[in-house]
Amino acid sequence: MHKRWIIIAGLAAAFAAAAPAQERRSEVSVQGIGLFPGNWSGTSILGNPMTGTASDSGGVLLSYRYNIWRWLAAEANYSLTSNWENFSTPEGSFSGAVSQQGLMAGIVLKAPMFGRLTPYALADGGELIFNPTVADFFTDHTPAHQTRGVIAYGGGARYRIRGRFSLVAECRVVRYVAPDFSLQTITSGVLMHSLQPSAGLAFRF
Asked: pLDDT tens for residues 74-85?
């Protein structure tokens, strides 16, 4: 994971070095984020049918953006959410509270500014780290924390309100393989998705 982030940081630095000095702009933002996972179904590696559901919840999203040119920016994001995961199999139900940490980086393509409003599209990649609450999982096997690769895409807009401050609204679709916490009974390899709208405040410097 560390090597991947070193490569991402190196690419961002290379873009920054190539950008004209007058176009260099940094932004940080803090947003409240909603987490709306999709339900899924599949077959476990043991050959049994299974379904998975997760509760809707929320959390926080911290972002750093470097504006390379007027139409292009690089960004890095950290998110923290928590919800309830449930897996139903012929062997029984496995469920518990799970915290999720997201580490992602990507690009932002910005449309021309309309007055104070700047719409944009975004595409990110990175990792989701799932940390189950051991006491909640109804199984003799202790569930392990797990990391999944993730891609995200979506869009948003920033509305400059005063000075260096802007209002931010975004929505991402995040896709990843369903977590199984090293439990063969619930290992399926199913690709799932979650919808993550967010809103907050950005500061440019």
From this structure: 999 999 999 998
